[in-house]
Write a structure and sequence with these properties.
alpha+beta; 3-stranded antiparallel beta sheet; 10% strand; elongated; binds zinc ion
């Protein structure tokens, strides 16, 4: 059996670079209401707003500012439009078609990152819920039982009546009644009152 080869850089210079950001003034003009009485001054202000960008704007800085305003993280990857067009043209020539889609990878997609962040918070919260009997972490809901009584006739409905928590370590179970704080079901959910 041969040992796996050592990782080699095959002559390429590795990318060891990193970016440094500092807080700076915006690349955009911010409109300030004019309260004076000199039409010329207002004229000058309007002149400045012919373009929304500051005179010494830098494309990279503007893209970074827009990305931040739009909620993209600082490590989002960017490809120049021209480079992108070349890649697509090459693919089209070679294969006749190309599939384009938004980048949904978890580490570059802000919507997915928000969901993952929430999942992490939920996991931490769950971890802190300890079994009342053995103190094992992760005491969590394993079943939701129906049977919330109808407000009008009292018959059990299909709505959740209780949650069952279970310990994965000692298997202790605890039922929690009316977990959502609602004690009766709207008769609209009742088989008898609303067949
Ligand atoms: Zn337990
Ligand atoms: Zn009913």
């Amino acid at each position: 059996m041969s040992r796996p080869k050592k990782l080699e850089l095959d002559g390429k210079t590795p990318d060891l670079g990193f970016k440094v950001y500092k807080l700076d003034k915006s690349n955009f003009h911010f409109w300030q209401d004019y309260n004076g009485e000199e039409p010329q001054e207002l004229d000058q202000q309007l002149e400045v707003f012919q373009t929304p960008l500051q005179s010494e704007w830098d494309p990279k800085a503007v893209i970074t500012e827009i990305m931040l305003l739009e909620g993209f993280p600082l490590d989002s990857s960017l490809t120049k439009a021209a480079q992108f067009k070349v890649i697509v043209a090459e693919l089209l020539e070679r294969h006749g078609s190309a599939w384009l889609e938004t980048d949904m990878r978890a580490h570059v997609n802000p919507a997915r990152m928000a969901v993952i962040e929430q999942a992490a918070h939920n996991l931490v919260k769950k971890f802190h819920q300890r079994c009342p009997q053995c103190r094992w972490p992760g005491f969590d809901v394993v079943r939701r039982l129906p049977g919330l009584p109808c407000a009008s006739c009292g018959l059990p409905t299909a709505l959740t009546h209780q949650w069952v928590y279970r310990c994965t370590q000692c298997h202790y179970e605890r039922q929690v009644l009316y977990p959502e704080g609602i004690k009766v079901a709207d008769p609209g959910h009742c088989e008898l009152c609303n067949p």
